[in-house]
Amino acid sequence: MPLYEHVFLARQDVSAQQVEQLIEQYKGVIENGGGSIGKVENWGLRSLAYRIKKNRKAHYTLMNITAPHAAVAEMERQMGLSEDVLRFMTFKVDELDEEPSAMMQKRDRDDRRGGGRGDRGDRGDRGGDRGPRGPRREEQE
């Protein structure tokens, strides 16, 4: 049976619980079509590179799918009709990767580092070896 990786973006104003319901709905479509869903990764609410249908953020979700093409096509058809799904993309792959995706590995690395943008640490003396600044323009004239 063909193997697919499928990513979809849900609107920013739907809750995480509603995203889980969407996943369960599409999982049912795949299973009714004779397929199965392997790994499901919820990447969370992330910023978009550009606005899509007046949304600046979206809930990203990755699904590993083993199913016939007809089941995947039906799931994509239903996603196209849904107002909660902004975009989706399906890739046919040779083998499914059961390890965490690059997005999840990045999140784990960020969590271990303990950092958000506000945690920059003490930068100390920024002047260092720069020396004094020259005179300002008004003083040069």
Write a structural description.
- The model has no long low-confidence stretch (mean pLDDT 84).
- It is built from four helices and four strands.
- The protein has 141 residues and is of the alpha+beta class.
- It has helices spanning 16-32, 69-81, 102-113, 137-140; strands at residues 3-11, 36-52, 55-66, 85-93.
- A four-stranded antiparallel β-sheet has the order 2-3-1-4, covered by helices on one side.
- It has a domain at 3-94: Alpha-Beta Plaits, CATH 3.30.70.60.
- β2 and β3 (55-66) form a beta hairpin.
Which helices and strands appear, and what pairs or packs with what?
Layout lengths: L2 E9 L4 H17 L3 E17 L2 E12 L2 H13 L3 E9 L8 H12 L23 H4 L1
Antiparallel strand pairs: 1-3, 1-4, 2-3
Protein name: Small ribosomal subunit protein bS6
Pfam families: Ribosomal_S6
Keywords: Ribonucleoprotein, Ribosomal protein, RNA-binding, rRNA-binding
Flag low-confidence runs. Answer: none
- Determine the number of helices (DSSP H or I, runs of at least 4 residues): 4
- Our measurement of the CA-to-CA distance between the termini, rounded to an integer number of angstroms, reads 79 Å
CATH architecture of the domain at 3-94: 2-Layer Sandwich
The structure class reads alpha+beta
From the alpha-carbon coordinates, what is the Rg to the nearest angstrom? Answer: 23 Å
Strand count, sense and barrel status of the largest sheet are: 4 strands, antiparallel
Number of strands: 4
Reported by name, the CATH topology of the domain at 3-94 is Alpha-Beta Plaits
Question: How would you state the average pLDDT, rounded?
Answer: 84
CATH level-4 homologous superfamily of the domain at 3-94:
Ribosomal protein S6/Translation elongation factor EF1B
The SSE string, one letter per element, is: EHEEHEHH
Strand content: 25-35%
Q: Strands of the biggest beta sheet: in what spatial order?
A: 2-3-1-4
Q: What is the CATH class of the domain at 3-94? A: Alpha Beta
Q: What is the share of helical residues?
A: 25-40%
Outline: elongated
